[in-house]
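note to self: dont lose this again. the chain is below, predicted strucutre after it. 231 aa total, dont forget to put it in the shared folder this time
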Amino acid sequence: MIFTTEPYVMLVASLPHVGTLLSNRTPPINQVRLEQRLKELNPEDRAELEALRSLLSWSRLEIGDDDAAFVTRARQVIEAAHSETLRAAVSERLEIRTLMSALRRRHRGEDAPAPGTIWGYGRYVDTIRANWATPDFGVGRAFPWVIAAKEKLEAGDAQGLERITLQAAWDSGARHTTGHEFDFEAVAAYVLRWSLVERWSRYDATAAATRFTELLNAAFADNAQNFLEAT
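---
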């Protein structure tokens, strides 16, 4: 008999292959069944996964959060996470969101956020602010898709922009969770990939185009919530 120290062999084995992002018409498992499977996580892991999911899912954002409140909460959740792998994966997802927020702000003609303003998350906030007039915000090496995203935004191609940002999130997660097969990180990686597939599968180009236009034309008050509207 072969023994393994991996804690979630049976759970991971029960999850159908998620495939690739843009090839999926529907998620490989529905949400109800996925949530049932996740009950097999131990309480500590389940709580950590739910906290991290709350940062990445639009439906789980806390009502009343502005940019500063969200970023503060994100820092607290990520710092409290036990998994170094997931801290890095979720941090990069929020950095992608920060970059998308910057693209939208600049496209609306807004100036760079004032120094000291809490408007985004991660390693590149100051670089982006300092390079506001540069097409790639000075982060093109770290995020090679940023120019393509800028072009889609300027062309009003909502679906094309969605494809780029979701694929960037997918690729980021894959990089960080490589090598995890039957552990907590593997389960969390599956859930995060599933959420991207689910979002893409229910994507409606007409509705997205309407939302895209609304985002560009909205008149924002002092708390613009630019960061919260991104991927």
